UniProtKB/TrEMBL annotation, chain A:
UniProt protein name: ABC transporter permease
Keyword entries, A-Z: Membrane, Transmembrane, Transmembrane helix
Signal peptide boundaries: none
Transmembrane domains' residue ranges: 62-79, 91-113, 134-155, 161-190, 202-221, 260-283, 343-361, 381-398, 426-448, 454-473, 494-514, 520-537
Keyword Protein biosynthesis: no
Source organism per UniProt: Viridibacillus soli
Keyword flag NADP: no
Automatic annotation (TrEMBL), chain B:
Gene3D superfamilies, per database record: P-loop containing nucleotide triphosphate hydrolases (3.40.50.300)
Domain of life where this protein originates: Bacteria
Sections of the chain in a coiled coil: none
Protein name: ABC transporter ATP-binding protein
PANTHER family assigned to the protein according to its UniProt record, in alphabetical order: ABC TRANSPORTER, ATP-BINDING PROTEIN
InterPro entries linked: AAA+_ATPase (IPR003593), ABC_transporter-like_ATP-bd (IPR003439), ABC_transporter-like_CS (IPR017871), P-loop_NTPase (IPR027417)
Keywords: ATP-binding, Nucleotide-binding
ABC transporter domain span: 7-237
Length: 546, 264
């Protein structure tokens, strides 16, 4: 086990802990153990990167936060307007990042039920245990927020002086504790009224949301510097009391601009009083929180099954063989219910949904809205096909991959149908909905005349699904490999699949202006799908596995 | 010789790399028997079962199930087998209902039929409340019950049970033992491997002891007693596997526990 630097910093405060009747050496050991375990876990912000064993992923993710701090916070320091607007924007960003990482990465810390079984039977006081849990979170938040604000802090001190920096740091401290407490409250609330499975679902969706937000932020960042030209005057409205970032914009205005209006004092008071009250309430509710944690492993709310008529209908239309139909439904369920799959696949779908529009708006900025509409450029839709290879690749994996013994134990007559139906389910569950939304939007933006083009792109998408399967997967059983093996030297193959998509887009581009060509191309694509599917999944070699 | 054996293994050998796991297994099992398949860890029990189910391949020798060689590629024999694997591995983000309906359908049941039957069986185990909950929220015992249900949904003729009672409470153990006896009476064959000797001794019509990939004893409990000395199956097991160091190991273990720091 490593001796972490953060622990050495903690050693300085040893006396303080001992004054509070906390067994410091034991608390230190618990935290050391937890930090070691965490260093082997993957932060959600790194989702999709290559995993290397035995290197501290969290410390590496700090560099990323440093970078985000530079790009998301620093531009606001150059705003020419009042402190109020600029600082409030900065604290909005800070809160957003802290809340989402708190939920996605630290919920494991906050919601750890193993603590109860492993640590509580040992001779350790509850006080020490709670302290260890709290300090564990504090260490993280200090590191994370530290990395995030260090550059803006330095720039702020340089531009506005030391006093500015001091207010900034105190505000960051308050924001941090407010966020921890509010997150804990939200969990408490959910656990009180819903089951543990529901909470895990919600955490999962926040993680997915964070992944999409991170991808999109690259787009937004490019424009955030343009904002620094804007000049906005702040005027107080009563509902501003409900916006925490403004609470922390106020002190700058009061203390640096000497703007002593009553409304600003109210905001500033909120910023100080509410976190303190919330913290006291939190400490009071801590035992209740620990008690409701036992609900985490429960799924007691659902007593009825759901029926899904659309899925039934798809299964009936797309699969002739009853066993294939069964497997279609199974694959659809897996995609909908496995959180690890969703965490990796849904951001791709989200990105596929958003990217064509990002391209569209880039075009609008380059030309004009009218010209862009007149162009009827549907090619950005090809960018959403980029998700297909990744998602198809993900079908190989499952967090519970060992459950795949069932495929071999069951009497399956043609085991190629396993993947055939899994791919069909992926098309209907993931690609089709995203595609419908995009094509509806483009048809409304341009005219209904783009529909033939969009049908071509959809057919290409189906063909890409098949091609990706052949290039990337190629094996017999879906959901049968551990997630830890994701991204193993498959980047090259993914790139290959992307080139194929590019090729299809080029063909489409060249034939676009030839009369009747689109119709013929459509028919060709349909033929290619039918024949290709038959060749890959046809009922040939089903007997006599060696 | 049994005139219509349900399963027959002839000279089955298997190795993983250079490690020989099975050294020529010969077995014949008839209808309506409960076979206790026992042996120390690593003797090859699970490997034998997995070979017969086609979960792993690459053996030499001959395996016949329901009178047909399984190597000829006809998979349909699997439809008459039920299996409970040793480790309770399930796709556990599915609900019990979803998982059981899926497995039932894989074995050729209709959808409604599978779901109804699964619900009724869950009801008998007192789990009807949990029918639509995710398996990940199930306790070890509940999962084991789900696996047992999934193994019998399609009314199979041959059951492979690998440590099926693990995690079950005493009452459920009684129920499952009774179920096995009833199934055997109906003419079903149960191939039962376990490390709990008391249970094997009680329920098995015939006990097969495997050591280092070889069958070293085969017969009813009474026959085994005659072969060796009197005693429980546990004692016979120790004798036949040549293990008699328990006294010394325990002695040394406790000595180490005693050493060092003592609580004041």
């Amino acid at each position: 086990m490593n001796d972490f630097k953060s622990l050495k910093v903690l050693d300085v405060f040893r006396g303080v802990f001992e004054k509070f009747d906390i067994d410091y050496p034991i608390m230190r050991q618990i935290i050391q153990l937890k930090l070691t375990m965490d260093s082997r876990r993957m932060p959600a912000i790194f989702n999709g990167y290559k995993q290397k064993k035995e290197s501290n992923q969290f410390l590496k993710s700090l560099w990323l936060y440093l970078f985000y701090g530079l790009l998301l916070l620093t531009p606001f320091l150059f705003l020419k307007s009042q402190y109020m607007f600029a600082t409030s924007m900065m604290f909005t960003m800070l809160m957003f990042i802290t809340v989402t990482t708190m939920v996605s990465d630290f919920s494991a810390v906050l919601l750890d039920v193993r603590d109860k079984n492993i640590l509580q039977p040992k001779p350790v006081s509850n006080r020490t245990l709670s302290a260890a849990k709290l300090m564990h979170i504090v260490i993280y938040l200090v590191l994370l927020n530290g990395a995030f604000v260090v550059i803006p802090f330095a720039v702020g001190v340089y531009r506005y002086g030391l006093f500015y920096g001091l207010i900034f740091l105190v505000s960051v401290l308050f924001v941090g504790s407010l966020v921890v407490v509010v997150t804990a409250f939200v969990y408490l609330f959910i656990l009180r009224f819903f089951s543990g499975e529901k909470l895990k679902d919600i955490i999962n969706y926040v993680q997915i949301f964070l992944a999409i937000a991170v991808m999109l932020s690259y787009q937004v960042m490019a424009h955030s510097f343009e904002l620094s030209q804007v000049n906005i005057q702040y005027t107080f409205h009563w509902w501003h009391i409900l916006l925490p970032p403004l609470w922390y914009g106020a002190p700058f205005e009061v203390l640096l601009n000497h703007n002593y209006s009553a409304s600003l004092f109210v905001l500033m008071a909120c910023g100080i009083v509410i976190p303190v009250l919330a913290l006291r309430l939190y400490i009071k509710l801590m035992p209740a929180f620990e008690r409701s944690l036992s609900k985490l492993l429960s799924d007691s709310v659902r007593t009825k099954g759901k029926s899904r008529p659309f899925e039934e209908w798809c299964a009936k239309i797309l699969c002739r063989d009853p066993q294939e139909r069964t497997f279609y439904r199974f694959a659809a369920l897996m995609m909908r219910q496995e959180r690890e799959f969703k965490l990796k696949a849904y951001p791709q779908v989200g990105f596929a949904l958003v990217f064509p529009f990002v391209m569209f708006f880039n075009e609008v900025r380059m030309y004009s809205f009218k010209e862009t509409i007149a162009n009827e450029n549907v090619f950005p839709v090809y960018f959403s096909a980029l998700m297909i290879p990744t998602v198809v690749h993900l079908l190989r994996f499952s967090g519970k991959y060992k459950g795949s013994w069932i495929y071999r134990a069951a009497p399956i007559n043609n085991d190629k149908m396993l993947y055939s139906s899994a791919l069909k389910a992926a098309i209907m569950q993931l690609f089709f909905p995203a595609f419908i939304v995009i094509s509806m939007a483009f048809a409304l933006l341009f005219s209904w005349e783009v529909i033939p083009d969009i049908i071509i792109i959809f057919l290409v998408g189906i063909l890409i699904t098949l091609i990706s399967y052949v290039i990337l997967n190629g094996e017999t059983y879906p959901f049968s490999t551990s997630h830890e093996l994701t991204q193993d030297n498959n980047t090259m193959k993914l790139f290959m699949a992307m080139f194929v998509i590019g090729g299809f887009a080029l063909v489409h581009f060249f034939i676009a202006n030839i009369p009747y060509a689109r119709g013929i191309y459509t028919l060709l694509l349909i033929a290619a799908i039918v024949i290709g599917w038959h060749v890959v999944f046809g009922k040939k070699k089903n007997h006599g596995r060696p | 010789m049994i005139d219509q054996p349900i399963l027959r293994l002839q000279n089955v050998e298997m190795s993983f790399g250079t490690k020989q796991v099975l050294n020529g297994i010969n077995l014949e099992v008839g209808k309506g028997q409960i076979i206790g398949y026992i042996g120390p860890n690593g003797a090859g029990k699970s490997t034998t079962v997995k070979l017969m189910l086609g979960l792993i391949e690459g053996y030499t020798g001959k395996i016949e199930i329901f009178g047909k060689d399984i190597a000829d590629g006809d998979y349909t024999y699997k439809g008459r087998i039920g299996y409970v694997p040793e480790t309770a591995e399930l796709y556990d983000h599915l609900t019990a209902s979803e998982y059981l309906t899926f497995t039932g359908e894989m074995y050729g049941l209709g959808r409604k039929e599978a779901e109804n039957k699964a619900y009724q069986l869950m009801f008998q185990f007192g789990l009807e409340q949990a029918f639509h909950q995710r398996l990940s929220s199930f306790s070890k015992g509940m999962r084991q019950k789900v696996l047992i249900i999934s193994s019998v949904l399609h009314n199979p003729d041959l059951l492979f049970y690998d440590e099926p009672l693990s995690g079950l409470d005493a009452n459920s153990v009684l129920v499952v033992k009774e179920i096995l006896a009833k199934l055997a009476k109906e003419g079903k064959t149960v191939f039962y491997s376990s490390h709990i000797m008391e249970v094997v001794e009680k329920i098995s019509d015939r006990i097969i002891l495997l050591v280092d990939g070889k069958v070293v004893a085969d017969g009813s409990f009474e026959e085994l007693q005659e072969q060796g000395k009197e005693g429980t199956l546990e004692e016979i097991f120790n004798q036949m596997t040549g293990f008699n160091e328990q006294g010394e190991i325990a002695e040394r273990f406790v000595e180490i526990v005693r050493e060092g720091r003592v609580h004041e």
